[in-house]
Design goal:
alpha/beta; 25% helix
Length: 184
């Protein structure tokens, strides 16, 4: 039987969703945006973000595995740009990958991001836009920045569907909305 869960109602790119609240540590709950399989929302967000990024000159989109892959893919199509996925586990076919460590609020565990050797040339001297589904603590964002810096990329902009937590902290992020964190 499904547990009854509090939700946070929000409208994103003209689409209404009720985001379920999950406790990530004692006394702290966050609203979870899970775009996996939500093609209606992904397409609407990609279109809205493409419009917001239209005045920015960039060559490539970069995201981290896994929940933000659909928005990166749809945005790449809408903007006519390639995209790269920074992986969370190393595979031998990735060759001389560049890596950095992050700490995700949703897992509470350290994670390592990897830039596949095949993608290094695409970002070297390129103008990159970092794209994420939700930017909360900024740890994944920082990990993506570190990898791009090591790879010789220039960050043209940082974007997300939503920012979360302290709104002022994310004033430089191009986003479609903001959600609070919930303390008991």
């Amino acid at each position: 039987m499904k547990e009854e869960r509090d939700a946070y109602p929000i409208e994103i790119a003209g689409i209404h969703r009720d985001l379920p609240l999950f406790e990530v540590k004692p006394g702290l709950r966050i609203a979870i945006l899970n775009i996996l399989g939500d093609t209606e929302l992904v397409e609407a967000c990609a279109s809205a973000l493409a419009k917001k990024l239209a005045t920015i000159e960039y060559d490539v989109l970069v995201t981290a595995e896994a929940k933000s892959i659909p928005i990166a893919h749809a945005l790449a199509i809408a903007a006519g740009k390639p995209y790269i996925v920074l992986r969370k586990s190393y595979k031998p076919y990735m060759g001389q990958a560049i890596q950095s460590e992050t700490l995700s609020i949703t897992t509470g565990e350290p994670q390592t991001l990897y830039l596949d050797e095949k993608d290094r040339e695409l970002v070297n001297n390129a103008k990159a836009v970092i794209i994420d589904d939700v930017i909360s603590t900024g740890s994944t964002l920082q990990g993506m920045r570190m990898i791009l810096e090591k790879a010789g990329a220039n960050i043209a902009a940082e974007a997300a569907i939503l920012t979360e937590g302290e709104r002022a902290k994310w004033s430089n992020i191009i986003s479609l909305g903001h959600i609070p964190v919930f303390s008991d």
